[in-house]
Amino acid sequence: MPAAIVVDNVSKKYLIGLARYSSLRDTVTNTCRRVLGRPLPETARTREFWALKDVSFEVEKGTTLGIIGPNGAGKSTLLKLISRVSKPTKGTITTHGRVSALIEVGAGFHPELTGRENVYLNGSILGMMKREIDKKFDAIVDFSGIEEFIDTPVKYYSSGMYARLGFSVAAHVDPDILLVDEVLSVGDWGFQQKCLERMQEIVAAGVTVVFVSHNMSAVTRLCKKSAVLDAGKCIYSGDTEGAISAYERVAIGIARRKGGSRVNESQRAEVEMLSLDLHNHSGVSTHSLRTGQPFEIVLKARWNVPCDEPIMVIAIRDKQGMLVFRTDSRVAGCPISSVTSNQVVIVRMRGRMNFLSGRYGLHIGMETSDHERALSVSNGDLYFLVPEYPVAEGTANLDLEMHIGDRQT
Amino acid sequence: MFTAFNELWKFRELLWNLTLREFTVRYRQTFLGAAWAVMQPLSLTLVFMFISYLRPLPSDGKPYLIFGYGGMMQWTFFSTSLTMAIPSLLSNSGLVKKIYFPREVLPISTILVTLIDFCISFVVLVALILYYKYHVGIAIPFSGWVLFVPVIIALQVVLTLGIGFFFSAVNVTYRDVRYALPLVLQLWMFASPVIYSANAVRQKSELLYKIYMLNPMAPIVTSYRTVLLDGRAPDFGYLGIAVAVSLAIFVAAYIYFKHVDARFADIL
User: What is the pTM of this model?
Assistant: First the structure.
């Protein structure tokens, strides 16, 4: 099969800082300063940020590629590059055929125009000809389900109606390559299902699709192959099943990163975890806890710097990187007194596992007493698994007791 | 540049729809509607008519209303176009950041809308000329040179597009443009024969006139009057310079615009 999209060693650099756009005066003075060798003012300094780094992959004609990855991994940047909204700093992207991007539904809607006028405007923004829109107009309106309001200015629409009409236009473009970014999250559940069905129709019609989503079930349903992005790098490319498990590993890693400041290898952490263990009800160290089981977390922390009344934070995230539990030693009513350098503190926490099945990442963080700064912590991570629980599914176990009362006739 | 034109052609319907959108939106929910297109040049002309009443402004012996309105209407096209076109990339940043299309359709569409306004106010000018000729009885000779008007319109559109391309692109990076623009346009208006006659400059000094006519707007505005009010051929020497300057600005600006347009989505 020939490739519809070839992404070859693509990197994208952004400059971050205040000086993304500037006034002429700043540019003139900064150029003078540079010429004279004087230091630049704080605001003029920008930092390079590589949103994508050496990403390569191909999408075969008529196939669907899922792109998954945590927030900020570079997924949207990648779509922008494929759709030519932005240009890669390095590398090349080749596409064959008409590219249409479902990036933000209703981008380009004008609030003063009616739904009908906006369908034509938005359609032409997405590259459709008037004849084409005429032909599909009824299908578009029908799909959106807002026939009644089609001649009302869209400024009077609810956000749901707005999104539905936007998706309907975009879903009827008929491109050779369709880029989809998280748009299935619009509207109510029923409309989402409709969108998903429409997507499947598009895929079945032989359109090449690149699908960015956080919705793993949608990715599984639509894409045979997927790529995983993390911090601008493509860390996996292959079948979707493998991609999802690669993503889960990354997401748990993200929990570690977000939980506190990352330890730079070159410097010594301010707090070192000498040990961090999870014990089950019989006191055995484990990585698996059944729902309902009591457990104990035991940790031994050594301070490399003195600290006044530090606060210990414990956070647990699920495989998608979502926070499921967080507390700290102060709110839990167990403040830590001031510590001196090299002091070792042992902490025990007991609880009952009320999560349902899944993989979780636990992170221990330390903050200064005013919550101002997170101290760097090494080895503050722990992973554990909760196996399937026969009587419930979801995230949390509520220990629900059911009681069916006397029937009344 | 030809590939750019080619692509622009593919997006002609988008250009048309954006123009339509601008036009509909501009006068929707207004009481006077498209009459506003005439209000601006007309009211300014009335102001200068009053000044001319206190102390005559040189108008080549023509009634000041048609003389001044003719220039002001053209100037309004030029200045309104630029005022709308230059921030057009910024005000549509939502689109620019999300969807690919040739970015020049944004400034072009705003200029096209202003061209519609211009046509409306042109009709009023024709009505005024007819009124003065047949009702008041002022000698306004007609000739075949009237047919030259579309050429002058094309010329002013090319000049406006060139300036619009360049500064709309610059405005993405340097927001100074937005503040400098009204000032520059105001000064430029007084440096062009909008409210007075270019002949008055010539009578003062031939050298000054030569320099004065290098401003492409000067021969453009003057040519309108020569063709419409005098029924004579325009001064092709100065008009030729204006054509050359306008085309050069247009080509250079368009090349510059296409050179930097890939960066717009990153900067906006």
Answer: 0.74
